[in-house]
Design goal:
The protein is mainly alpha-helical and 277 residues long. It contains 11 helices and 3 strands. The chain folds into 2 domains: 125 residues, Orthogonal Bundle (Arc Repressor Mutant, subunit A); 145 residues, GntR ligand-binding domain-like (Four Helix Bundle (Hemerythrin (Met), subunit A), Up-down Bundle), CATH 1.20.120.530. The protein is globular and about 75 Å long.
Length: 277
């Protein structure tokens, strides 16, 4: 019975990896059985090699999709790709030197995040910014970030204060040198740091996922005259209130900071009517 099962497995191996099914006939003696087991394990080894190659190809494809997704996501949030702009699969294939399949998978991921819209027979377009989404994102962000500020006010260490002060100094340098992109990155770093005081990355991940559309709006506010300095001044007030242990005023400063974006949002709708729906 064992010999019959081995023979069936070996024939199945041959059938699936296109090897010749010719094997020594299994015979009821030790030498023949040893030879057959030798061939059997050789073919198992071949199967393993084939499977490893398949896994490597799948991993490469997955990594490629992830890279394209991350790059396009950043370009959309940074407003390098404008709302309503068409995304050409052909151009992306040439740019990343890949086939259409990973490009389409990356775009599908972006559609799940409401960053692109896919229309059959028409193509893929950067999603316009929905006004209701921005207001909902703001509601979620304010609720979470004011809660983290309350916690941070009670648990801020001396080292935390030093780190926050260093971030603020770097932000001011960005304002003085008019480096808006770097300031945006440091803006994210500051808010992330405050959210992570006494918490895990999970809290910040929830906040970050809830403010995708807000981030696009935020990028439009940076060119506004004097706004970069306003951002840093608001950050400084938040940190100063935290460092002094004034929880109530720290929360109020954070609310003021977050609401400022929402107020400027109404101005942006008038300045960029084609970007919003």
């Amino acid at each position: 019975m064992l010999q019959k099962c081995v023979r069936m497995l070996i024939r199945l191996v041959y059938k699936n990896i296109n090897l010749s099914p010719t094997l020594p006939i299994l015979a009821p003696n030790r030498a023949s059985i040893a030879i057959n087991y030798f061939f059997f394990f050789r073919y198992l080894e071949r199967i393993w090699l084939v499977m490893s190659e398949i896994i490597q190809k799948l991993n490469f494809r997955q990594n490629t999709v992830e890279q394209v997704h991350v790059i396009l996501r950043k370009e959309i949030i940074d407003m390098l790709l404008h709302p309503g702009e068409a995304i050409s699969e052909k151009e992306l294939c040439g740019r990343f030197e890949i086939s259409r399949t990973p490009v389409r998978e990356a775009c599908l991921r972006l559609s799940f995040e409401n960053l692109v819209e896919i229309f059959p027979q028409r193509g893929t377009f950067v999603s316009k910014i929905r006004r209701q989404d921005v207001r909902e994102d703001h509601f979620i962000r304010e609720a979470l970030e004011t809660a983290t500020i309350q916690f941070a006010a009670r648990h801020l260490t001396r080292k935390d204060k030093e780190n926050l002060s260093e971030i603020l100094d770097k932000q001011q340098i960005c304002v003085d040198s008019n480096e808006s992109e770097k300031l945006y990155q440091l803006d994210q770093i500051l808010h992330k740091y405050l959210a992570q005081v006494g918490h895990s990355d999970r809290v910040w991940n929830v906040i970050e996922n809830a403010k995708l559309q807000l981030n696009r709006v935020r990028m439009l506010t940076y060119p506004m005259a004097g706004y970069m300095q306003i951002i840093v001044d608001q950050h400084r007030e938040i940190v100063e209130r935290l460092c002094s242990g004034d929880e109530e005023k720290a929360v109020a400063a954070m609310k003021h900071h977050l609401n400022d974006v929402l107020q400027r949002f109404e101005i942006l709708i008038k300045d960029y009517p084609d970007y919003f729906i």
